[in-house]
Request: fold
Amino acid sequence: MNLFFLTLRQIFLTSIGLIVLPSSYLCHAQKAKAYPKNIIFLIGDGMGLSQISAGMVYQGGDLQLARFKSIGFIKTQSSDNFITDSGAGATAFSIGVKTYNGAIGVDSLKNSKPTVLEMAEEQGLSTGLVATCAMTHATPASFIAHQPKRSLEEAIAYDYTKTDVDVVIGGGMHYFNSRTDGKNLIDTLKQKGYEVVDSTVDFSLLNSSKFYAFTNSYHLPTMKEGRGGFSEKASLKAIDVLSKNKKGFFLMIEGSQIDWGGHSNDADYIAREMVDFDKTIGAVLDWAMRDKNTLVLVTADHETGGLALNSGSIKNKTFTGAFTSKEHTGVMVPVFAYGPGADSFTGIYENTEIFTKLTELMFVK
Ligand code: MG
Ligand code: ZN
Reply:
């Protein structure tokens, strides 16, 4: 009896299974495209393949970037030049259109367009910006400000007060509190509910969910000058605060000074900044691997210096760099993606598609 009963039960379950199985398969197929809850977007300013190789050599062959499996390339040209600047380069990422060199969050006709960070705020996500330069500099500015010229750093600082970005860590306090118009934007930010601290306070100890931590009046020191672990520490602090939002977050982290090593044709400057950025990437990736709902995207706005590695030794951690330019160059730069949606970033495409792909993953679920 028992055996008979079990057999019937098994037949029953199997028949249910036969009906359920195909529809659950269909359901699974429809959900094949994965969507991230959080996005961490890391930009290595001036970071081409040679800069990444320089960082690899300085780390004796190791590279956190080697942990990524979804890899692509982007074309970096701006609307008016084969060679982009960092304003047009970051604006291509932030608003998704090719614009002229020097533009900050505006299209080629100088019209403001909502940035991916502003769109994230609109959707109730938390947002943050971390950089190793003044926060009014072209790359971070392009995610939050809308100005016709990158040199308008006081106007860019004022644009920060018009947004609801949650966490800002970097330099540039001068443009907020020592302005030619006499305004003190630090007071404005405090009135808006932010905690605002300078370098006398250890930002990693802050308990606020909305804060600005200004580490410097202008830019941060170079790695050689002793910037230490700022980038990793600031990035992990931002993630810690932003990840408390159940809806998710968008965080942009810039390795700002790889570019400046390129402009000064200083291979050692480039390699040290690249190692620092790579370490930050590793720490962010560790967090994202634990979280499992985060897309980590790493790319560059352009290459700087036309750097080549003409000789070297990975064992001795040395190389001889040669430069073709003191400016940016027009070569494609790599894109590395990890996490839900990472597959969207393989292939060769225009820099503006970073915005298209990011917003589709974030907002067209
Ligand atoms: Mg930059
Ligand atoms: Zn540059």
Summary: Residues 38-363 form a domain with the Alkaline Phosphatase, subunit A fold (CATH 3.40.720.10). The chain has one domain: 38-363. Residues 46, 86, 259, 263, 304, 328 surround zinc ion (ligand 2) (CB under 6 Å).
